[in-house]
Design brief:
Radius of gyration: 41 Å
Helix content: over 70%
């Protein structure tokens, strides 16, 4: 009986249409699952980039804050020197070299004030750029998440539809195989 069944199996056409449809829909489903995996990887990469940018921003802000503190300290030192020089100048007559030194120190103070203002402006610009980029990245991530959720919902709907089709095809196959077994049994009876 097994030999006859094998012989009938070899004579059978390659695939029935409902099996071909099931195979194609399964392959399509695997394709969607691969896309879902790539979306998840892309979201992970974007989160990593945001963390890197946050770190870069904090490093830049810390560097700017350090420059600002340094300029403030130098400014205070220069002011202390000027005060001391004024006290010394009151005690003795000022020489031309002292006056040149005082003028140079005043010029340095003005330059340091200008650099301090520029540094504060740079910090404000960096903070504005960071806020803008963060907002854009957040919007992009929300759109990616929305697209991802829509894709998942569509895949689930398709999966349910495919499961229903597969159940119907399995039932049809069972009915058809039962019919084939009946025919085989009849043929065996006829052959005997």
């Amino acid at each position: 009986m097994n030999r006859k069944w094998r012989e009938l199996e070899h004579e059978r056409p390659a695939k029935r249409p409902h099996l071909q449809n099931f195979t194609e829909s399964s392959q399509e489903q695997w394709g969607w699952l691969a896309k879902e995996k790539s979306y998840t990887a892309e979201i992970g990469q974007l989160k990593h980039k945001i963390r890197d940018l946050e770190f870069e921003n904090s490093v830049q802000a810390a560097a700017n804050e350090g420059d600002k503190k340094k300029l403030v300290q130098e400014n205070e030192m220069l002011r202390a020197q000027i005060r001391q020089m004024r006290l010394d100048a009151d005690k003795q007559q000022r020489s031309r070299s002292d006056e040149r030194l005082i003028k140079g120190l005043k010029t340095k103070i003005v330059e340091y004030r200008d650099e301090l203002k520029k540094s504060e402006g740079t910090i404000a610009e960096l903070q504005a750029q960071w806020a803008k980029r963060t907002k854009e990245r957040t919007q992009y991530l929300q759109q990616v998440r929305k697209d991802y959720e829509n894709t998942i919902a569509n895949l689930k709907r398709k999966m349910i539809t495919l499961e229903d089709k597969a159940a119907k095809q399995a039932q049809a196959f069972e009915t058809e195989s039962g019919h084939c077994y009946d025919l085989l049994a009849r043929m065996e009876v006829e052959i005997q």
